[in-house]
Write a structure and sequence with these properties.
The structure holds two protein chains of two kinds.
Chain A lengths: L4 H10 L1 H32 L7 E6 L10 E2 H7 L15 E12 L5 E9 L2 H4 L5 E5 L8 E5 H6 L8 E4 L2 E10 L7 E5 H7 L5 E2 L1 E5 L3 H13 L5 E5 H45 L1 H9 L4 H27 L6 E6 L4 E6 L4 H28 L2 H6 L2
Parallel strand pairs in A: 4-9, 6-8
Antiparallel strand pairs in A: 1-11, 1-12, 2-10, 3-4, 3-11, 5-8, 6-9, 7-8, 13-14
Helix pairs in contact in A: 1-10, 2-8, 2-10, 2-11, 8-11, 10-11
Chain B lengths: L1 H10 L1 H29 L8 E6 L7 E2 L2 H6 L4 E9 L3 E2 L9 E5 L4 H4 L7 H9 L3 E5 H7 L6 E5 L7 E9 L10 E5 H8 L4 E2 L1 E6 L5 H11 L7 E5 H11 L3 H30 L1 H9 L4 H38 L13 H28 L2 H6 L3
Parallel strand pairs in B: 5-9, 6-8
Antiparallel strand pairs in B: 1-11, 1-12, 2-10, 3-5, 3-11, 4-7, 6-9, 7-8
Helix pairs in contact in B: 1-12, 2-10, 2-12, 2-13, 10-13, 12-13
Classes of the chains: A alpha+beta, B alpha+beta.
């Protein structure tokens, strides 16, 4: 027979101070764990636009990221005549030559970082349907206008809407902010000729983004580009490229989060064990009575493990609630593969929350198990004799 | 008196152990985070009389080679040497095969880094052979390279692959992390690229640290109206700028550390309160026997201090071992962490925290015990 759940919940209240302390300590562990996971999730979301498998990114052979890639514009002309490239509404090939430049800029806290500037032409927007202007308007080429990723505009005061900023040797005006739903939100976009001119990179592109009809055609195009000795370019599908950019950076935070969770979890397990031991010790006579009434050892064990699990659950929920304000907090770091700033919002999603609660319950159960076993093991007579 | 305290600690061994262990664990975490933060902020191997000059736009832009001479002619400048970060791939892209590769000018490199120790004959051969390189002792040990060995490095930033022969091994006892680089001829790279005459960074050695500020100002002013403006800064500021790029990750680590300490406080305070509550009647007996309030307070405090300090010592010991392991594991992923260590300040902080936790968590029960009236206490003896 099972011991009523009510019994466990009520007993948690009896030793209130003690229970609260334990809940607090487990909740803090959950807070830290969820915080680090949110950091990783936010970073992953900001870097990890999934990309379209029919899109191909072309870089200079050997370059690992757009920021270290550059090649002459002639190659772009050869590229855009290759078969398999889809065409836009007015028949133009959907191939976007883009110039990516890193410029040191100041964050709002005064520290500095490399921000990626991307010079594009109109076709770039046809290739990125998710792209939309949030505030202000689209830039006009030829007059030194730029648009800025939404989060970047928040973190870099020089890039706020309406501001004038010197990039390279020219002055630019921020006329709009945009949301691309991913990677590009950490970038500044302007006309490729304008940015090329400002940095004296008129004759080079860093990458070409090409749209094909299907993932199969994309693979065929990749094979063709890499096989072409004139070009000395390498190509891969958009999803593959994005994945490379993401894993290394966000993985570090997942590893950090897990390491912290394991170590802190141990500490919290000890706290839970301590509390449960004291619960068991204080209720020796009660346990004896329960046993005398005919409850089995198994039921006693179950009841105490359950009690510990509830303890963990409550702590987990509190920890997650404490972590919720972190959601959306804007921050930034450098992706060392592209050597450029990634601004992102912490993201406390369902996955992170569930992870936190599970950790707490697990902590409670692991901590509660030894005391529960010792409670179940003792003889009725010994239990009843305690005061 | 103390004996009684010790006996009390041993009375509930399990609890003492659990509390001590949670103190240890959390302090291990504090030490680890502290070590990481310290490692991030250290700029090992940077001299206070070296200046870095680079493009004002960002490190991905280079400077004309002609700046070399103009920098050399400045007052207080003893030597100037160009360095380009090659950033190629050795063997594969795994982080453990990452190390710094610089194209340099063999004639002047050692004028700017006089602290590098390398046999003269090795320097001579290295200077003569265009496709040779020198590397630090630590790197040579890691890959088992010997003089005369050839290595292949695939270019990534530069569209050039390198085949290099090892001609010299230098040591830098004061900055082990500086021994994890290779230096090869910039002429080799320049020729492969068609002699663009571009330099990533210039390193300047200044006659005295006092003149660093002046030189920095003059260097920046000198190229103000040139085609490529420069940023000049001390070597240390240059190293720290990479850290700055990491953004407020540091703040996050600090916040995590604080959260850990708070949760630790809860855990120990909880246990100490439990221990004290269990002994209410004992305290009453002690008081009846004539022990003063002060005695009782000291008794409880000593007990919690012992747990806090004991836990801290064990935690510190384990942290030393762990951090050393982590340093070995991490140095390949993040070279900056190769120097990971529990530095004295971090150790002191951990010890201090252990004592503080002991004091705080013992404080409340001690106060309760002191205030306890004998009659109330004895009544609890059911």
């Amino acid at each position: 027979m099972q011991i009523p759940i009510k019994y466990n919940i009520r007993t948690l209240f009896v030793r209130r101070g003690n229970t609260l302390m334990t809940i607090a300590s487990i909740a803090f562990v959950v807070l830290v764990y969820v915080g680090v996971l949110s950091l990783a999730a936010g970073l992953r979301a900001s870097l990890g636009s999934k990309g379209d498998a029919a899109n191909v990114i072309v870089l200079r052979d050997g370059a690992r990221a757009e920021t270290e890639s550059y090649f002459e514009k002639d190659k772009f002309r050869i590229l855009s005549t290759l078969p398999g490239i889809a065409t836009g509404p007015s028949g133009e090939p959907l191939a976007s030559g883009e110039l990516v430049i890193l410029q040191i800029l100041k964050r709002s806290d005064g520290s500095e970082s490399n921000v990626a500037l991307r010079g594009v032409d109109e076709v770039a927007f046809l290739l990125r349907p998710a792209f939309k202007i949030v505030e202000g308007r689209q830039f006009r080429p030829g007059v030194g206008e730029i648009i800025v990723g939404r989060r970047l505009a928040e973190r870099f005061p020089g890039l706020a809407l309406g501001k004038q900023i010197k990039l390279g040797r020219l002055e630019f005006t921020v006329v709009g902010t945009f949301d691309s739903g991913g990677t590009f939100d950490s970038e500044v976009w302007g006309a490729s000729d304008d940015l090329g001119n400002a940095f004296r990179r008129e004759n080079t592109y860093s990458s070409v983004l090409v749209r094909t009809g299907s993932p199969d055609e994309a693979e065929a195009l990749i094979a063709q580009i890499e096989g072409d000795q004139r070009l000395k370019l390498s190509a891969e599908t958009e999803p593959a490229y994005f994945k490379e950019q993401t894993t290394a950076t966000s993985q570090q935070f997942v590893v950090l989060g897990n390491a912290l969770a394991i170590l802190m979890g141990f500490g919290a397990c000890f706290a839970a064990a301590n509390t449960m031991y004291s619960h068991v010790a204080a209720r020796a006579r009660e346990i004896g009575t329960l046993r005398a009434l005919g409850f089995r050892r198994r039921s006693i064990l179950g009841a105490f493990v359950f009690e510990a699990a509830i303890l963990g659950l409550v702590a987990g929920v509190i920890g997650v609630v404490l972590a919720l304000p972190l959601n959306g907090v804007s921050t930034g770091t450098t992706n060392f593969l592209t050597f450029s700033e990634v601004t992102f919002g912490l993201r406390t999603g369902p996955q992170e929350m569930i992870g936190g609660v599970l950790l707490a319950v697990l902590t409670g159960v692991i901590g509660g198990l030894p005391p529960a076993v010792s409670a179940a093991r003792r003889e009725i007579t010994a239990l009843l004799r305690e005061r | 008196m103390f004996q009684l305290s010790l006996k009390n600690l041993l009375r509930n061994k399990r609890r003492t152990f659990l509390t001590g262990a949670s103190v240890s664990l959390t302090l291990i975490l504090v030490c680890l985070l502290g070590a990481v933060l310290t490692a991030m902020e250290s700029a090992e191997g940077s001299a206070d009389n070296r200046i870095v000059v680079r493009s004002a736009i960002s490190l991905t832009f280079s400077l004309p080679e002609s700046y070399w001479q103009r920098l050399q002619q400045m007052d207080h400048v003893l030597a100037v040497t160009p360095l380009n970060w090659f950033g190629g791939i050795y063997k594969d892209e795994r982080p453990e095969n990452f190390f710094a590769q610089f194209s340099c000018d063999p004639q002047t490199l050692l004028d700017v880094w006089p602290e590098y120790q390398i046999p003269q004959d090795q320097v001579a051969t290295w200077r003569q052979e265009r496709n040779s390189f020198i590397c630090g002792q630590a790197l040579a040990d890691k890959y088992g390279w010997k003089i005369g060995d050839q290595i292949f490095i695939k270019g990534s930033i530069y569209p050039v692959d390198l085949t290099l022969t090892l001609r010299g091994i230098y040591t830098e006892p004061n900055a082990p992390s500086a021994e994890k680089s290779i230096y090869f001829h910039r002429k080799y790279l320049e020729e492969a690229l068609g002699n663009p005459g571009q330099v990533g960074t210039f390193f300047l050695r200044i006659d005295s640290p006092d003149n660093v500020g002046t030189v920095v100002q003059h260097a920046e002013a000198m190229f103000e109206n040139s085609e490529a403006q420069v940023r000049a800064e001390t070597e240390k500021a240059f190293s720290l700028s990479f850290l700055e790029m990491l953004g407020n990750i540091r703040m996050f680590l600090g916040a995590i550390g604080a959260a850990i300490v708070v949760s630790l406080l809860f855990i120990t305070a909880n246990t100490m309160a439990m221990a004290a509550r269990e002994r209410t009647s004992e305290v009453a007996v002690l008081k009846t026997l004539g022990f003063r309030q002060g005695h009782v307070v000291r008794l409880v405090m000593f007990e919690s201090l012992a747990v806090g300090l004991g836990g801290a010592l064990v935690g510190l010991g384990l942290a030393y071992v762990l951090v050393r392991g982590a340093a070995r594991g991490m140095e390949n992923v993040f070279p900056i962490f190769g120097t990971l260590a529990v530095t004295p300040p971090v150790a002191l902080l951990a010890l201090g925290l252990g004592i503080l936790i002991g004091l705080v968590s013992g404080g409340f029960p001690a106060w309760q015990a002191a205030r306890l009236s004998i009659v109330d206490g004895l009544r609890k003896l059911a």
